[in-house]
What does this fold into?
Amino acid sequence: MTRLPVIEVREARRIYRARGRRRGRTATPARVALDGVSLNVGAGEWLALLGPNGSGKSTLLRILATLDSPQSGAVRRFGVDAESGSAALADVRRRLGVVFQSPGLDPLLTVRENLACQAALFGMRLDAGAEAIERIAAEAGVFDRMNDRVGALSGGLARRVDLARALLPSPELLLLDEPTTGLDHAARSGFMESLDRLHSAGAVTIVMTTHLMDEAERADRVVMLAHGRIVGEGPPGELRRELGGAVARTSAEHRRLLEEAGLHVAPARDGVIGSGELEAVERAASALTRAGASFHIGPPTLGDVYLGLTGMALSSDGAAANRSAEDAS
Amino acid sequence: MSAVPGGPALLLLTRRELLRFVRQPSRIVAAVGTPALLWLFLAGGFADSFAPPVGAEGGAASGNYAAYLLPGIAVGVVMFSSIFAAMSLIEDRRAGFLQSALVSPAPLWSVVGAKALGGAIVATAQAVLILLAAPTVGLTPGFAGSLAALVAIALTGCAVTALGLAAAWWVNSSEGFHGVMNLLLMPMWMLSGAFFPAAGAAGWLAVIMLVNPLRWCTDALRASLEGDPMSALWAWAGSFAFAGAMLGLALLTMGRGVKVKS
It folds into this structure.
């Protein structure tokens, strides 16, 4: 399928200046947040930016959301250059829906009042806005809570209202910055399912940052970021296949056994991880069994791919949460 | 295509500020209660020992400290209220509401303007609450004087809220903002002629009081409450200039860089 680029980023660099210089020492040293990132996103595509905290994914999203701009490189959204003036910028923003890490809602206002603010900010006419608000609230399943204050809603429900807020002006591009932060497992899957439905309807391009591999799994394409650079890119299935058929995890003292079985070994948070073809993993499993070692084998996850590419874990809590969810299923 | 019209956004966002205010009754208590107590205690405490120097501002009611103090206390109410309004900017930034408004196609002036307008309306309403006590201390401004007092209070509200917003834009935490505001606004209030007339103050203090914009606001309000707003023409000019300059400063500060907490 030919996809028109909705986003084009070329060699974007963003450096945060050092701040708080005092007696020759800097409180916050200069930091390279994005180090020459280039990527395209096609219309209707769902792209996940995957990386741990500090990898640059939120900076990239803020740049795409027009809240920040790179010091060098080029960013085009809908074919419009970032520096095309305020009229062009307003036009880009009109076609953007953004969900930030913390909900863009006023907890003291009701669901309806919050959505009305959004309608006004996007210049929707009063009557059309009111109609759209009822429709979007019904779609989000919050119609019966329209007159409740957002502060009284559960975290998951508030998130759904936040998504409804972003979708109210029918954006062509939806940007989400770790949208499930602070949600429990059930609320998280509920939220991701609504994104699935949105994506299947095909009307909107989605770019989402996450450090959770099960969320990234749902996307069409995953871009892995580390230290402000793209370290891996492709559909999730393909990325996993590149790593090999399976992985074996064990403690660091048994590293040699994994290597002897012909696996590619990398340090993991709680030991070592070996990846390779299924036969090699089976050989390693026999050797580990004979040695009386405790180990775990399974299909590779995106977290394993990230670990293989960077030597870093995606996130301690995220990886652990995903693993336990897999173990339970 | 250009930016969406800012009018509806300005109205809806101003309405939001007012709704936020009525849904937080503690804000009313904090902003009106403290200055009201101060008024009660100071007016009572100095009741028999206050005698204004010859030529001091506050003509008709100048012999009565409660009446002298009232305009300054009303300005104080505006000040406390504006601090709360500006602090809500810091909250907004943290809660993500502001970020969402900033990535919308609505013009920036409508977002900034709604904060200033909402803050000014709330501040004015609260100051009016305390000014209702004017007749009890012998201040009878009449219709024109009351109207002028309302304008003076609204101007003060606009100016101080805009100043607070500009300051809040650069401060990351409510704690830091409190510090900045205490350092800036408290001395301005102390030297606004709210508590003592410039005519009887030490020379160097009187000079500072002369160039203190909050003093102009207090003088315009005092003249209005005494039923003769036109007797303070310079103070009126200064109050208008102060409000205009502070609104400009807020717009300039917030327009220059989109600074939101990530």
